[in-house]
Write a structure and sequence with these properties.
Layout lengths: L37 E3 L42 E4 L2 E8 L3 E9 L5 H4 L3 E11 L3 E7 L3 E4 L2 E2 L13 E7 L2 E11 L3 E9 L5 E3 L8 E6 L7 H8 L4 H6 L5 E5 L7 H7 L2 E6 L3 E2 L5 E3 L6 E20 L5 E7 L19 E5 L6 E3 L4 E11 L5 E10 L9 E4 L2 H16 L17 H14 L4 H13 L1 H6 L8 H16 L3 H18 L10 E3 L10 E5 H20 L3 H21 L11 E3 L2 E3 L4 H10 L4 H15 L13 H13 L3 H16 L28 H9 L15 E3 L8 E8 L2 E10 L2 E7 L6 E3 L9 E6 L1
Helix pairs in contact: 5-16, 5-17, 6-9, 6-17, 7-9, 9-10, 9-11, 10-11, 11-12, 11-13, 13-14, 13-15
């Protein structure tokens, strides 16, 4: 809609028809996103021809209430980038392995709602396996309870592909063997596979026919109350007997090597690393790929992890299946790691119609490595290119950072690179797994943006979206899956308003937040603490349910004090006093019931009448950061935490702290003038991220190979902010006072001998360079004309003789 208001009357001249090529039963890409893209363009027809004379085209039906969705309004943020980029290298071309024979099928189940998606609806499958001799055969099977001739099978002890395949030894007798499987179908689809050695000469048949068309018969899915019935069915030894029961309810599956789920198809159709292909280019620069019944696998790499729409171009014979798998990382065999997390279907499929020469995904995805699989080619494929269309929020980069420590330079860059991947029509958590807007992610994303770009329009828009997301929580007190997140949006909005000087959003949403906090205060117990059914707080293994968690109390304190300040600003003195007193009372309750007098740290919380005696780092960091602190108290707490930071553990999501809560830890350490502790922590845990690749991103956890975490997650990029506001020293207001009409520069580093760079201050870009030479600290500053500058080094740098040059 650009920058103009407009009305669209689509009922007069417009026509429409349903797209027929998309697989409407495709399972979700992940638990948090929509369906995988599986598009057979052969059945789509030529949309460009606009064959409106056919009965396929229909007139739109007018909506009776034309005001139901409001009027069109200008887009509040700029349009996203649309930059087509090609892969930078093709890392290999191979045939597909032919050592195994594949059988498969797919049965879709409802997954529109999360309750459906996570439901386990049982089903059963039966078949016969013909073996020409008595033999032991190792077979790959999909998950489930498997029975051979009435005996339940156990997987082999060594499993290297357990995320999508488990190997079993089948003790086959000569002739026909009964095979049954029971499975609780989750995640909207039963993608069943069997892989057996081609050399074993086995035949699968639902009817004991060596030339039969149907290889398996399935019954179900049953609702959850049918589980017991399925369990009894599976124990039977005879597929024939099973299929005689409710014969009309059985579904039969013809032999196919594809289950119609491209991600699983790609990993089951294994690459033959011993069969590299030598492909040539024609005069036009196209890669010439002769037809191969085995299928052809091509591996590609982008220059860096990219968010965008995947595309492939070339001349594809009709019926060619084009599968594109994608990932952030490579697996142990050097392929795109599609099943780093078993729940995600990181692939899409196009079936060529012989006419179109470019196929492009409808949705953007995050990827660095691509696996292209071409099969079903009736003739030569001429491949013109593979790549992505970058789809980012168009930030202008203002900031920069260089220092005497090149590792910190790379960490700064990795944080900014990852932030861009997580900036679309709103901020998101990760370009790969979810692309969801989360308040806990957005706070560090916002301050990074403030330091490097200064464009907080995306933050303001995201905060508006949060008002819709949390409307019921705010107005009715409904509990949230993450009860801490609505509070974090309040703190983020406070920061945005202070940075931009625009308080209109805060004033508009004041009533919502006041209502939210009143609902929380109504839940105070006799100790003065506030419980929640569920909070997020951290990825670590601290309790998160049905308790008054200490970190959550601290967040409530910060929210109460913030809203008190807003009330004063907006002339609501009575409410200002109410929220201020409530915050002070909550601090008193924390000091009385949650502070351990022996360790001087905080317990994790209170559950019922029992204190949760564990003392996770977060439980001490958050109240120290958000309480009624003093400089002396900050310093004492930093010293108290220092021994714990020497070793935070090495088990994913069970460490003492993760990148998520480290944002608050670093805030506290720098406020306490413990730059040495902060820089050592950043170097140790972000250094491995920065050295991971030539174009690194920051990870969700402190380990890239963790099965749950992503390797591009912008909540972890906050060292970029601290390097700008601490190492360079340009103050931007987080945990500090911010005067938008004055530039305060407080260089603060325990290890650097020099640093230089630019920071996006609200008044304009500020360039700083400082260097320690002998007993002097030389600082050069170039800022917006007419804006006063104050330079006041902190920590170690405050001990040098200051030599200042202002431009």
């Amino acid at each position: 809609l650009g920058e103009k208001r407009m009305d669209l009357d689509i009922t007069r001249d417009w026509v429409f028809r349903a797209a027929t090529g998309y697989d409407k039963t495709a399972p979700r890409f992940s638990f948090a996103t929509g369906p995988m893209e599986i598009w057979d363009s052969c059945s789509e027809g030529d949309w460009a021809a606009m064959e409106t004379a056919t009965t396929d085209w229909k007139k739109p039906v007018p909506i009776t209430d034309q005001k139901r969705f409001g009027t069109f309004a200008p887009r509040p943020i700029p349009h996203l980038t649309q930059e087509a980029v090609s892969t930078v290298q093709r890392t290999g071309a191979y045939a597909r392995k032919q050592e195994e024979t594949l059988y498969s099928f797919r049965i879709p189940t409802p997954d529109r709602e999360m309750v459906e998606y996570n439901a386990s609806n049982r089903a059963v499958g039966t078949t016969w396996i013909y073996s020409p001799k008595a033999q032991q055969v190792t077979a790959g099977l999909w998950w489930g309870e498997h029975y051979l001739n009435g005996n339940k099978l156990s997987p082999k002890s060594e499993q290297s592909r357990e995320s999508y395949r488990r190997d079993y030894d089948l003790e086959l007798k000569k002739g026909w063997n009964a095979f049954t499987v029971g499975y609780g179908i989750i995640w909207g689809s039963w993608d069943f596979y069997v892989a057996v050695p081609e050399s074993a000469g086995l035949v699968f048949s639902a009817d004991q026919e060596q030339e039969g068309e149907d290889w398996m018969a399935t019954y179900g899915p049953f609702p959850e109350e049918g589980n017991e019935r399925v369990a009894q069915l599976v124990l039977s030894q005879s597929p024939e007997e099973l299929q005689q029961k409710d014969a009309g309810s059985w579904r039969r599956h013809a032999r196919t090597v594809t289950a119609g789920q491209p991600a699983r198809d790609l990993v089951w159709k294994e690459t033959d690393w011993k069969a590299p292909l030598s492909l040539q280019k024609d005069k036009a620069g196209n890669l010439v790929i002769p037809p191969d019944p085995r299928g052809v696998v091509l591996q590609y790499a982008m220059a860096e992890t990219t968010l965008g729409r995947l595309w492939v171009a070339g001349n594809f014979p009709k019926g060619t299946e084009i599968d594109i798998g994608f990932s952030e990382e490579l697996n142990g065999e050097g392929e795109a790691w599609l099943y780093k997390r078993y729940q995600i279907g990181a692939a899409l499929r196009f079936v060529a119609d012989g006419v179109r020469q470019r196929y492009e995904s409808f949705k953007p995805y995050g990827a660095k490595y691509l696996k292209l699989h071409l099969s079903g080619m009736s003739d030569t494929v001429r491949l013109n290119g593979v790549g992505m269309v970058r789809q980012y929020y168009p930030f202008t980069r203002v900031g920069s950072f260089r220092s005497s420590n090149p590792l910190l330079d790379k960490i700064w860059e990795a944080g900014w690179r990852t932030l861009r991947l997580c900036a679309e029509d709103t901020y998101t958590d990760t370009p790969f797994r979810e692309r969801g807007l989360y308040a806990g992610d957005m706070l560090p994303e916002t301050v990074i943006t403030a330091a490097v770009s200064g464009d907080l329009r995306l933050a303001q828009h995201s905060l508006s979206v949060f008002q819709d997301m949390y409307q019921e929580e705010m107005l009715t007190g409904k509990e949230n899956r993450h009860n801490d997140f609505p509070l974090i949006t309040l703190l983020t909005l406070d920061y945005v308003a202070k940075y931009t000087g625009d308080w209109s959003q805060a004033e508009e949403y004041f009533t919502n937040y006041a209502s939210l906090l009143r609902h929380h205060l109504s839940k105070r117990d006799e100790k003065g603490l506030i419980s929640a059914q569920r909070v997020f707080i951290e990825w670590t293994d601290l309790n998160k349910s049905n308790a008054a968690m200490t970190a959550y109390q601290a967040l409530l304190v910060a929210s109460l004090f913030t809203l008190s300040e807003w009330a004063t600003r907006f002339g609501r003195s009575k409410e200002a006093a109410t929220f201020q007193v409530a915050g002070e009372g909550l601090i008193q309750a924390m000091e009385t019931h949650l502070l351990d007098p022996v360790s001087s740290k905080y317990f994790d919380g209170f559950q019922g009448d029992t204190v949760i005696t564990a003392q996770h780092l977060t439980s001490t960091v958050w109240p120290s950061l958000y309480g009624l602190h003093t400089q002396e108290a900050d310093a004492n707490m930093a010293d108290l935490l220092a021994p714990e930071l020497a070793d935070i553990g090495n088990v994913s999501r069970k460490r003492k702290i993760t990148p998520y809560s480290s944002f608050y830890l670093l805030s506290l350490l720098y406020r306490a003038e413990r730059a040495g502790l902060a820089e050592a922590f950043i170097e140790r845990y972000w250094g491995q991220m920065a050295l991971h690749s030539a174009t690194p991103t920051v990870w969700e956890n402190f380990d890239v190979d963790g099965g749950q975490g992503t390797s591009s997650h912008a909540w972890s990029g906050h060292p970029t902010f601290f390097l700008a506001t601490e190492a360079l020293g340009v103050q931007l207001g987080w945990q500090r006072e911010l005067d938008r009409e004055e530039i305060l520069i407080q260089p603060h580093s325990a290890t650097l001998s020099w640093a230089e760079g630019t920071v996006a201050h609200p008044a304009g870009p500020v360039y700083v360079r400082w260097e320690v030479l002998g007993s002097h600290l030389y600082v050069a500053v170039k800022g917006p004309e007419g804006i006063p500058v104050t330079v006041r080094p902190r920590g170690r740098l405050a001990n040098f003789n200051l030599r200042l040059a202002l431009k």
